[in-house]
Amino acid sequence: MAMAENQLFHDLQPITLGGVISSTPLVISGPCSAETERQVLDTAHALAKIGIKIFRAGIWKPRTKPGCFEGVGAKGLLWLKKVKEETGMFTATEVANREHVKVCLDAGVDMLWLGARTSANPFAVQDIADALMEHKEDVTVLIKNPVNPDIELWIGALQRIYNAGIRHLGAIHRGFCFDGKHLYRNIPQWHIPIELHRRCPTLPMICDPSHIGGKREFIAPLAQQSLDMGFRGLIIESHCNPECALSDAQQQVTPHALDLILKSLIIRENKQHTELLSMMRQDIDQCDTEIIELLNKRMELSRKIGRLKIEHNMQVVQTSRYDEILSNSMKQAIELGMNPLFMKKVMETIHEESVRQQLEVFKNKN
Ligand code: PEP
Ligand code: MN
């Protein structure tokens, strides 16, 4: 599986917009939505002044409910054209169907992105891929993760666009929807983009801390976290007057605040090795080997217990025993200064496998 994915994206080209963009991280910024020509141009000029090279603005806004501001539509493309003419910046906007692709390419938009609601819909993604194929232009396309935490759906969307001949391709991590309360607007679930990066190492990964955090104050820490994890770019919403924005007002920052955020970020080098790191990795590998050997020993014990349960005509799962295992391990975790919820998850996984092993023993006896 992993090999097949790598081969699939083997000839991607870096996102340099014709060799002009080389800085790391790649930064894309601009308002959530284009609202008026003045707002677009004021924001763009202020961003150009702080060195931003790629300007984003949503023209068509996928809103959860009707009646919200749904974007200015195609007339906003004329404003993006002006941004290019007046500032020299590249432009980027969201496309959700074939018609959007056509009018954006006709208007000279340099970069298109698929939003989280679109990438969750294979019909819409294919429609966009077909339109891109018709135009035969190697425009840069970024694909946001689908709203639901499904890595295969994300990879599927990337594959559809790649198969349309797009080689300047990237993925945007904007967090995942969830039920209930959380600090952030969308839960990062970092393991999903990290797994995507593991499977597709040539695919540029861009983080969208604005949509993950949902509030201005989370942008800097989330952006730093993403860079520390190896993300290569950032897409951050900015607005000349964020409080009055027609969409996502709470998560937009002024160009000046963006400048401060970017200046505060620490860019770490992607050094693969130092001697000390290699030694510590050997220790980690040794630790992992011991964990696996211990798990194997534990499963052998589980099977032995399974055989004993059959002899005494006992059922496999005894909830009181399960409760005892969970509470003991959580208690021990707390004593050791570890996260008890992490320990609970580990023990639940181990217990699940133990039960499966015992059921196998039961099946083979019957
Ligand atoms: C956006 O970028 O403004 C947007 C609508 O994002 P998402 O698709 O991540 O919700
Ligand atoms: Mn937005």
Helical segment count: 14
> What is the averaged pLDDT score?
93
Helix and strand sequence: HEHEHEHEHHEHEHEHHEHHHH
**Basic shape:** elongated
Low-confidence stretches: none
* Helix and strand composition category: alpha/beta
Helix amount: 40-55%
Bound molecules: phosphoenolpyruvate, manganese (II) ion
How many beta-strand runs? 8
Percent strand equals 5-15%
Strand order of the largest sheet: 1-2-3-4-5-6-7-8
Q: What's the alpha carbon Rg, rounded to whole Å?
A: 25 Å
Instruction: Give the N-to-C terminal Cα separation.
Output: 36 Å
Largest sheet: 8 strands, parallel, barrel
Model description:
The chain is of the alpha/beta class and about 375 residues long. It contains 14 helices and eight strands. The chain has helices at about 1-10, 35-50, 75-85, 100-105, 115-120, 120-135, 150-165, 190-200, 210-215, 220-230, 255-265, 275-310, 320-335, 340-365, and strands spanning about 25-30, 55, 90-95, 110-115, 140-145, 170-175, 205, 235. The chain starts with a helix and ends with a helix. Manganese (II) ion (MN) binds near residues 32, 237, 247 and 248.
Sum up the structure in keywords:
366 residues; alpha/beta; 8-stranded parallel beta barrel; 8 strands; 10% strand; elongated; binds phosphoenolpyruvate; binds manganese (II) ion
Outline:
With 366 residues, the protein is α/β, with parallel strands linked by helices. It has helices at residues 2-8, 37-49, 75-87, 98-106, 116-119, 122-135, 151-163, 191-199, 209-213, 219-228, 255-264, 275-311, 319-335, 340-365, and strands spanning 26-30, 54-56, 90-94, 111-114, 140-144, 169-173, 205-207, 233-237. The chain has an eight-stranded parallel β-barrel with strand order 1-2-3-4-5-6-7-8, surrounded by five helices.
